[in-house]
Write a structure and sequence with these properties.
disordered C terminus; about 120 residues; elongated; three-stranded mixed sheet; about 55% helix; Helix Hairpins; mainly alpha
Length: about 120
């Protein structure tokens, strides 16, 4: 998986976690937990090129999934529409290239290759 894509996938996870904290962290007696997530988010945002980060932010602002897996059948994990065969091939074969869904614009990765999830979580 492309390094930038892995960072964006992790950023998406942390952003959802941060949004989910709301008042729960304070009620649970962990006021520093939200701050720790914020610091990790800022650190990741500083490592992602602005070109990709601006599109990532636009997608999240529209309540979309910014980084999604391509299913085994070749559909986008965000909008669930069938992708053109060439796009599916590009996602599966060209690991260093960033591909996006022609329908919803999210960044795509092949979720069926071993090691993607563990690399993204690192």
């Amino acid at each position: 998986m492309n390094k930038t894509l892995a960072m964006m996938l992790r950023l998406q996870e942390l952003t959802r976690l941060h949004q989910g904290f709301g008042g729960r962290a304070l009620r649970a007696g962990r006021p520093g937990a939200a701050v720790g997530v914020e610091k990790r988010i800022l650190r990741l945002r500083g490592r992602i090129p602005e070109l990709y980060l601006s599109r990532f932010d636009r997608l999240l602002k529209r309540r979309r999934i910014a980084v999604a897996a391509v299913s085994e059948s070749g559909t986008c994990g965000s909008c669930h529409l069938q992708l053109p065969v060439g796009d599916v091939w590009m996602v599966r074969e060209a690991s260093e290239m960033l591909a996006s869904c022609p329908h919803c614009g999210c960044f795509l990765y092949d979720g069926h290759k071993k090691g993607h999830e563990s690399k993204a979580a690192a």
